[in-house]
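Hello Y.,

Per our agreement to keep a running log of every chain we model this quarter, I'm adding this entry. I've kept the format consistent with earlier entries: sequence first, then predicted structure.
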Amino acid sequence: MATSAPPGSQDTAIAHVVGARPNFVKAAPVVAALRARGAHQRVVHTGQHYDDRMSAVFFRDLGLPTPDVDLGVGSGSHASQTADLMVGLEREFVENQPGMVVVYGDVNSTVAAALVAAKLGIPVAHVEAGLRSFDDTMPEEINRRVTDQLSDLCFATSPEAVGHLAAEGVSTAKVHLVGNPMIDTLLGNLDRFDAEALRARLALPERYVAATLHRPANVDDPDNVARLTERLHEAAELADIVMPVHPRGKAAFDRAGLGDHPRVRLLEPLGYLDFVALTRGAAAVVTDSGGVQEETTILGVPCLTLRPNTERPVTITHGTNRLVTEDDLIATLDKVLDGHVDERLGDTPPLWDGRSGERIASVLTRWSG
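Predicted structure for the entry above:
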């Protein structure tokens, strides 16, 4: 895509704003590529994910530099958390005056940083721009659209994302198809995802289905959690279920008795290396996570996404992902476990080649003069 002209030379830092585990995985290759170019950088951790298992362990696993600041915002309702994020980020940006703010993904930290930077006149770059589920019941969908409208640079991971931005009136001069930096991190660590070692350490069965469910639509309503628990118990009759439980849904799943089935193994949240090793060794994955849809596409593991839609359709056309409902989960999983896997169309998604971080760094350094 075309490169937009910078507003002028900047000697101040590029500030990377990260707050949740998917952000860390996406930021790592960008930070590394800019470091190799000698760029002045600052990593701002908002503390949206504040538990070590959801945050600090990812920095260690991914070789990210220790954050220059941790705002320690923590959890809360969408309104209160976003407000706290904006107050902390405004203070950070006023004190340190970055020349560019780079935001990642679609969490509340992302939209908060974009709003604050835009109002302070600081250019914003959005990594993973243009993804759309067209489902406004998802808070992430609101965050994506607002962030893209405020961004001076939109880094898209797939061709359909470029099309969504064009349909919304985003200037083509702002849009760059760069591929997926999350895949950079995955490909760069392939030899560290030791599924056999993890299986031995955690005493996992030879054949298992990995599950991860945390989206509000699935875990916030007790009735939904009860139905999901029933389905996962049914799935456990087909194969052992191994599920790292996100803090967001732990209490609800405990109340519903998810771990009462003898073939359901509930784990504490895992670090990046262990989680991808768990995924790599699975016969199939049941998830509602966007990032897992992408990782399974590259790892070649069948992925059943328990959602009515996905903002990552490229993982269906080019990957191993398929959407399932609660009603058809068991039948579909049964077929997958019996080896009836549909032939996927096409090859790996375009530019998912491990060089996205370098492409993003190239644009950022050209743009900032």
